[in-house]
Write a structure and sequence with these properties.
Layout: E1 8-14, H1 19-31, E2 37-42, E3 58-62, H2 75-83, E4 93-100, H3 109-120, E5 124-125, E6 130-133, H4 139-170, H5 204-218, H6 234-239, E7 272-277, E8 295-304, E9 314-320, E10 334-338, H7 343-353, E11 362-367, H8 388-395, H9 404-411, H10 417-427, H11 432-440, H12 446-452, H13 460-466, E12 473-476, E13 487-493, E14 496-497, E15 507-508, H14 510-519, E16 533-539, E17 554-557, H15 564-579, E18 588-594, H16 604-613, E19 618-623, H17 642-648, H18 650-659, E20 663-668, H19 673-689, H20 693-705, E21 709-713
Parallel strand pairs: 1-2, 1-3, 3-4, 4-5, 4-6, 17-18, 17-20, 18-19, 20-21
Antiparallel strand pairs: 7-11, 8-9, 8-16, 9-13, 10-12, 10-16, 14-15
The chain binds flavin-adenine dinucleotide (FAD).
Length: 715
């Protein structure tokens, strides 16, 4: 008897750093368990899919990058879909998961753009769109969204099949996929509690309604259409932690979790065959594998900007670019630093995997012949003929937080009832809160997890399958070429991960810790020959530049190391003023903030120098941790954060932005700073223009559209 073909659906992804891709792959892998066949493609592989003729449900998984841009591999798709007209996708039935980060402007913008276009082109949504927020952890939305997806696909498939039958019986008419309630707002699925899903019906459209209804009861106010004003998800994260008491730990759970039956996700299919071979021919590469495309430059100067007793250590490094005539930059540009994993951690990992003796063996990777993984590929970031030592040092982000799929895979390599059960809990639906609390929020890395789960012995192939590519770290240029020809400055805080049970000694950030070690103790090296070398590549940012018309005023907001690009802006302005003393220059404002006036007032002398020279018209500095009693007697409490100063100067700010058509730049690493500044701007506009919140939001949206409100925010 011929086998009946399984129902199919299509999964399309657009992914910048591989997250959307791995989620899409996970969905494709899990499909079989639900009796479905998934056809997986990247949005730029248009030879592999054909939306024009697609009759089965389509699931889009798309991330957003930069200032709300589509990932590179979705760019063409977004461009082309925007050009289509009328009912082009009337036949299409879709669901969409958008990935984003609320620390950045234009949260999930790529997903929203695709969704808007699909709807304009007549496509029917069969499942509520999920907006997963990396700022609070993608899982909060991701897990319930994927869980509900299967019913929704099956519902959509049956509906489409019955509509097709009706269509062929009737012989005329359109394929009608019930459009989900047109009142479905632009919602945050992360506010949908998992329990709310139980009541959802099996038809896709009703899943959407159910999600909407759950949301309506979970939140009374919808988030603003343009920017979220609250740190999203915090409430839902804590709401999802009812079972955790302080006594639970990474390795031990408490009732009810320890006693409950678990919904453990499907095992991600293994797909790599990895062998180690003793070889004389193994390439002794040193440094990043793509170094032909990078520039190797010396660090010519290092300066500690904070006092020894400051909570944070901020360093300024100077790079000597003089040997690279093509390597020039503009203020506002940033550049990538390529750093290796820490030697001691690589060594520890080699020991833990039982492969220390084979560290110089060459690594051979091929696809498992019978793998069930959809779209399986040998990772492109692992070059051929490298040693195991090199693989762990330069190719894999061994510090990354293991995703739940990785934890699930680790279960299969763990002995002992208790440890195995605990790993199962951590990747299960029921153990989500424990995973967030003990793994994600602690930024635990694989080695820390393996130290706690002593009976877990993963094979090397599992690490290559699950650890992402080692990413370079970007830093903003904190100098102007005009002021320092052939030199580039950047500033950073040395990231400190606090100690926790699985990490008793704490640790430094990978790149900032490495840079710190390279130049420690500071200030260093008189001898040019002894200057440490690092690999960098430039990341031009053609938008984040001072106004090309020098007479246009601009405002800069950058607390802490967020001041970096503005030092470049102001050095440039100072030089331009020297070169053209008679030219008309617009006003410049800087809102700057640090913790203590004495300990960590970065660039104090330089900033005051800019004021004296006239390059900076107004310097507004605040100190978040200075004791108010130490402050001069003032009627009002002193401003603590940049947004307080912005509000105090709201008349000037709105005047510059709205009357004089000036620019506003925001830069920094403070998690909520960009949101707080945005809120303060809305408030300033509301108060000065005497308009309501909606009108203020429209004004701010316009500023962004005109590229006069620009952000460079890192999380
Ligand atoms: P990693 O080892 O990668 O760890 C950082 C991660 O840990 C982050 O995800 C962070 O959320 C998290 N984390 C940080 N501290 C803690 C903690 N205490 N506990 C738990 N988790 C923590 N940085 C600058 O300092 N100066 C700049 O000028 C600058 N410019 C940038 C420009 C751009 C365009 C971008 C995208 C980023 C920029 N950054 C800048 C950030 C920088 O690239 C690095 O992310 C940062 O220096 C940390 O790198 P790391 O490898 O030391 O930390």
């Amino acid at each position: 008897m011929p086998c009946e073909a399984k129902p199919r659906f299509v999964v399309l992804y657009g992914s910048q750093k591989g997250q959307a891709e791995s989620i899409a792959e996970g969905i494709a892998d899990e499909a079989e368990e639900h009796g479905l066949v998934a056809e997986l493609s990247c949005l730029n592989q248009n030879e592999k899919y054909n939306l024009e003729k697609e009759k089965d449900p389509v699931v889009f998984i798309v991330s957003t990058t930069g200032d709300g841009e589509p990932p590179d591999n979705a760019l063409q798709f977004v461009k082309s879909i925007k050009k289509k007209t009328s009912d082009h996708y009337k036949h299409l039935c879709y669901a969409l998961l958008a990935l984003g980060d609320t620390n950045y402007a234009n949260f999930c913008n790529c997903g929203k753009t695709i969704e808007r276009s699909l709807q304009e082109l007549g496509a029917k949504q069969f499942y509520a769109t999920g907006y997963a927020d990396d700022g609070v952890g993608l899982e909060v939305v991701l897990d319930p969204w994927i869980e509900g997806l299967w019913k929704a696909i099956n519902g959509a498939l049956s509906k489409m099949a019955s509509d097709r039958t009706d269509y062929s019986n009737a012989g005329a008419g359109d394929l009608i996929m019930e459009t989900p309630d047109s009142s479905i707002p632009d919602v945050q699925l992360n506010l949908l509690r998992i329990t709310d899903q139980k009541d959802c019906g099996s038809i896709g459209a009703s899943v959407s309604k159910c999600a909407t209804a759950a949301l309506a009861s979970a939140v009374s106010d919808l988030r603003p259409a343009v920017f979220p004003s609250q740190p999203l998800g915090t409430a839902s994260v804590s709401a999802a932690v009812p079972h955790v008491t302080l006594a639970a730990s990474l390795t031990h759970s408490l009732p009810p979790l320890s006693e409950s039956s678990l919904n453990v996700p499907a095992l991600p299919p293994p797909y790599l065959n990895v062998t180690l071979k003793e070889a004389d021919t193994v390439q002794q590469i040193v440094g990043p594998s793509n170094k032909e495309t990078l520039h190797e430059v010396p660090i010519s100067r290092a300066l500690q900007l904070t006092r020894g007793d400051s909570v944070k250590t901020s360093l300024l490094l100077e790079l000597d670019l003089s040997a690279h005539p093509n390597l020039t930059y503009q203020p506002g540009d940033s550049f990538d630093v390529f750093c290796p994993n820490k030697d001691s951690e690589v060594e520890e990992m080699l020991h833990r995997l039982g492969l220390y003796e084979q560290r110089n063996h060459s690594v051979h990777i091929s696809l498992l012949k019978d793998t069930k993984k959809k779209g399986a590929q040998v990772p492109a970031h692992v070059p051929p003929n490298i040693s195991l030592l090199y693989l762990l040092t330069w190719c894999l982000e061994i510090r990354s937080v293991p995703k739940k799929a990785f934890v699930r895979a680790l279960v299969e390599h763990t002995e002992g009832g208790v440890q195995r059960r605990r790993l199962q809990e951590l990747c299960s639906k029921q153990g989500s809160a424990d995973y967030n609390l003990h793994v994600r929020d602690q930024s635990l890395c694989l080695m820390e997890l393996l130290s706690a789960f002593t009976s877990c012995s993963p094979p090397l192939s599992l690490l290559i399958e699950h650890l992402p590519k080692l990413q370079p770290r970007p830093y903003s240029a904190a100098s102007s070429w005009l002021r320092y020809p052939g030199r580039l400055h950047f500033v950073f805080n040395v990231v400190e991960f606090p100690a926790c049970i699985a990490r008793p000694a704490g640790r430094r950030g990978l790149c900032t810790g490495w840079l710190f070690d390279l130049v420690h103790p500071v200030p260093v090296f008189q001898e040019k020959a002894a200057w440490p070398q690092i690999h960098v590549s430039l990341r031009p940012n053609s938008l984040f530049r001072p106004p090309s018309d020098q007479s246009v005023p601009f405002i800069m907001i950058g607390p802490g190391t967020g001041v970096a690009p503005f030092i470049g802006f102001l050095q440039q302005r100072e030089m331009e003023r020297k070169e053209n003393p008679d030219a008309m220059f617009g006003e410049t404002w800087l809102f700057f903030g640090c913790r203590h006036r004495d300990r960590d007032y970065l660039f104090r002398e330089e900033l005051e120098g800019f004021v004296s020279s006239g390059a900076l018209s107004h310097l507004k500095v605040c100190f978040s941790r200075d004791d108010p009693e130490e402050e001069e007697e003032e009627e009002e409490a002193p401003p603590r954060y940049v947004q307080h100063n912005l509000l105090r100067n709201r008349k000037h700010v709105t005047d510059i932005l709205l009357k004089q058509k000036g620019f506003l730049y925001v830069c920094g690493d403070a998690k909520n700073m960009a949101k707080d500044v945005n809120d303060a701007l809305l408030e300033a506009i509301r108060a000065e223009l005497q308009v309501d919140q909606l009108d203020a939001m429209k004004t701010v949206a316009l500023l962004r559209e005109e590229k006069r409100y620009l952000q460079d925010i890192w999380g």
